[in-house]
Amino acid sequence: xxxxxxxxxxxxxxxxxxxxxxxxxxxxxxxxxxxxxxxxxxxxxxxxxxxxxxxxxxxxxxxxxxxxxxxxxxxxxxxxxxxxxxxxxxxxxxxxxxxxxxxxxxxxxxxxxxxxxxxxxxxxxxxxxxxxxxxxxxxxxxxxxxxxxxxxxxxxxxxxxxxxxxxxxxxxxxxxxxxxxxxxxxxxxxxxxxxxxxxxxxxxxxxxxxxxxxxxxxxxxxxxxxxxxxxxxxxxxxxxxxxxxxxxxxxxxxxxxxxxxxxxxxxxxxxxxxxxxxxxxxxxxxxxxxxxxxxxxxxxxxxxxxxxxxxxxxx
Length: 315
Fold this sequence. Notes:
Low-confidence stretches: none
Distance between the termini: 42 Å
Strand order of the largest sheet: 3-2-1-4-5-6-10
């Protein structure tokens, strides 16, 4: 049976991915690792406290559990990255290179590493952004993701490392709190609505961004990691898309369920970051190469979140 290590297991993606992987492979075969310990992971499988920048500790853990595949989800996100650029660079880059070297030396077999729409920039076509296009990110997060994409492709072509990656849009879930990304307004807004508070949005009301509901994101990871080797034709990172909407459109969708909900728009430094990103994404390559498709739109997602969020947080 395949042995899997999920690093960053307590984060927005990891907290849901670990559950799905354990359903597929058995709890004992999926090791959850993070600096932050979550008790729920100890119920149905092993958990290890881990600082990914401590290379010897990572290596010891891989050997202890005889790990085959590593899902590397650790990163400093867009907004937080601007507060401490050098730390963001060191964490995002050194951790990826560490794992790529392990794979090159045959210590692990496969790596999943998420990229982001942050790799694009102000000169990138904003509508239906193609797979291959101009990339000139102006955030440290975007710079690290673009550099990471190039390293992934390099290690595949030079050393045949089986690394697989997806350029995620903004991700929206209801099982974890916002993580410091520019698109995380679309997570926080649901919390404010259920608390009965006015939501103060740090983006302008007409700022359109690509978004994805977390179940679609988890499904995309599972699909690319179970795809045949020859079907994964892009080894930098695949464009991925589901829906695009503005803060105003999201607000009015929530207001259908919560008529009393109010919003104020007070754009801050994150507006400039959002303005450099696409409005919509062309993910034709992912849909053709390994049969990607999304299942959720704005209406369906909003209804599910408003129904399920109170089961995970007190309001």
